[in-house]
Amino acid sequence: MRQFSLIFLLVISVIHTLAVDKNNFKTCDQASFCKRSRSVQHERSPFEVNIDTLIVNPNYINVDLTNKHNGQIFDLKLEGIKGNTFHFEIDEKSPLKPRYRVVDALKGEPTYEAIKVTATGSDITVKCGENKVIIYATPFKLEFYQNDVLTISANSKAKMHFEHLRRKQEAPPPPENENEQNENEAQDQNQDEPGTWEENFKSHHDIKPNGPSAVALDFTFHQANILFGIPEHADSFALKTTVGNGDPYRLYNLDVFEYELNSRMALYGSIPVVYGHGHKSTSGIYWQNAAETWVDIAGTASEQNVMESIVSFVAGSRQQDAPSAHFISESGIIDVFVVLGPSPNDAFKQYTALTGSGNLPQMFAIGYHQCRWNYNDQQDVMQVATKFDEHDIPMDTMWLDIEYTDSKKYFTWDHQKFPNAVEMMKNLTNMGRHLTFIIDPHIKRDSGYFFHNDCTDRGYYIKNKDGKDYEGWCWPGSASYPDFFDPEIRKYYADQYLLENFKENSRDTGIWNDMNEPSVFNGPEITMPKDNLHYGGWEHRDVHNLYGQMQLVGTFDGLLRRAENELRPFILTRAHFSGTQRYAAVWTGDNAAEWGHLEASIPMCLSLSVAGISFCGADIGGFFGNPETELLYRWYQTGAFIPFFRAHAHIDTKRREPWLYPDDVKLIIRDAIRKRYSFLPLWYTMFYEHERSGLPIMRPLLSQYPLDKNAYNIDNQFMLSDKLLIRPVMQKGASKVDVYFPSRNGDKQADIWYDIDDYRKIERVGVESVTVNTYKVPVYQRGGTIIPRKMRIRRSAILMENDPITLIVAVDSDKRAKGTLYIDDEKSFAYRQGKYLYIEFEFIDGVLSSQLIDETASYTTKVWLERVIIVGLDKVPSSATLRASNNQATQVDIIDASKTAFTIRKPGVSLMEPTWSITLNY
Ligand SMILES: *[C@@H]1O[C@H](CO)[C@@H](O)[C@H](O)[C@H]1NC(C)=O
Fold first, then answer.
1. Which tens digit of pLDDT belongs to each residue from 652-677?
2. Is ligand 1 within 6 A of the CB of residue 321?
3. Which residue's C-alpha comes closest to atom 6 of ligand 1?
4. In the chain, how many domains are there?
5. Where's the Glycoside hydrolase family 31 N-terminal domain (predicted)?
């Protein structure tokens, strides 16, 4: 029996081979700066402000800061920014050499605001609008007040650590750790911790020419119950306590093969913004640093005690300290933006006011994307595209992974498999579809390859520590990596996308920038050595997390110029940093065909969304492995309500196009995709509003229900804008799912919700068990909203451009509702010159009216109003009267009346009419 179960276990472990090899990646203890900084434990911070040195300017102050342990002097600069935001920097007053400052993340210079400064002998108060900062001199501490409420403090836990640049022969500073002072009487540099001046990891040696250079600071969120943010991790939305509980969350862009769930390991992207949320307010810290960063979290619920802490919140007690985040970076300066909310949406907007919002995508990019590694040849591509038509399944974009290239040389095609690439693209265009192909940053070292020769001749590659072109190993074999930090190299790179240079290309193909962490198969932690050298003499250590973004800057410029600035570029990236939303959509990388990965896609995309990246998605079906049928269709149903909607699969997986499954399964998948298309007008409006307001599209429940503590830790539900509540089915064999309906006031005050499929009304706070058949995705429209849809589904999104609109008016308890619709040419930048319609609908007292939000904007469209479905009124009217702009009245019929909804049939009004109204007649 024993024998048998042992064999059984072995078999199981062979089947479940999907597992990350953790040995490839460092722990905090293996990254010497993390280990050193994490253990800093002062009873009293050695940093003190020299108030005598205060210099006051209209928008900022400068003052000196001294480390009493070693006499090092630092410059603190603090400035006020419009919109409840402060910025401060701490750098060495006179460093041995300049330290790296991130300049490519912000969308531009922030809008500064006037400050008023008062100083006493012990502190400095900086007022800005309603807010203030108190800088305490001894010991150094910053307190940020939003409207007189202490919201965030910095260094109140005395963990500030700043390793000034020094020469190796210098005596090291006295030990930072006072408690261990006697044990560590290290007067001799040889007694610096191993790893301080050079470091080994596996077979890799890091020479650290600048020695130790870490910076670290702690932040306490005094009004918060939970912290969230700092993507990208495959973990819960609310951050878990890490102190005394494993490693900190790590931010270091890495290509992690078969990443694991519930993990704080680094993934492909790093966005160092963390928010603290409590029922009184939301605030955030953007730690602007592109070096490897670790974040220790304390005072939040850990996995084990989530329920306990909810109970104690509800009981009004809080045994724990206020939550705090301790940021630790390997190099750079302390460069921090503090956003003070006070609402969650205020805080999200304040972050995107700094780093930008995503550009409105072309309509096709919001449709369904069909990808796999790889579609074999041009016949395969056209056959798959044709099959989507045969099976009446909408699809907008076919994708090509690396195998389309001539031996992984980007900007070339394999002419065996794709002899007529341009014709293939034209054929797709004729079907109303697009193509997206991959261009990775690694460049094959091949003397017959123009790109390699250009980069070699012109010195465009990143250099190794000896100043020679760095060589790594990636898909093409031996490869080098262009230094996208150099504007000249970015221009060269962008030029390669132009049709005159890359002829087998089109004005409108999408580009997929993958492997841009960068991935280096034989490098330390599957990436580039930190002592590699970049433009400006910076080490890779300083800029690592920004590398992928700099590739995107080049790609974006190339795609703009490829179409004479007429078309909005579509780019997908794997690596990301603060500001990536300005250039590209992001997907969650190489996930697996497992139920847990489907579930993880929600908190992963929510974390990215609040960190500015709204255009997020996960590979439908899972990249590694073969999904069971039920998982595949549940994944389609989930993905249909997530901004970036793409199926993708590893080269070793079985083909999984929808028609390869039995008819009943194909029909479920078809239904999910068609549902997505029916909501395209809403999606497009949400993307426009994201560009305009900076608010995320996909939102955690707390964005709309900040007072409902039960909603803080819900990871299997989310909202789209403030309109839809989504609870995807993500469990095998589920016939029921629990849906949580949140509270508006933290108690029993409910919003009204309507099931989008049958308009069933729900008005409650708490969990409802909802029956789900194979087709069902529990999605609810919030009472008080109006949603535009298109009910005539076509082969692709762009073919639906002129189709009529259906409005779903779902009333609140006052029988009112409001909504918006955005219309433009769906592809160009003409909307930035006022060529669009932005319409507001309002339903009050039985009258639906429409007016333009931006009256100066205009656009010629054939789109008209096909029907209005009014949901939640008790009485059905006998007819309705349409009044157009010229006040002419027309009678319209009421049809399909049920207990909860009725339809106003064919009002027929053009959406170009600046104002119109429909009155219900009883
Ligand atoms: C393009 O479409 C035409 C007409 O259907 C077909 O004959 C041709 O083979 C297609 N070419 C490619 C490359 O797909």
1. 999 999 999 999 999 999 999 999 99
2. no
3. 427
4. 3
5. 76-296
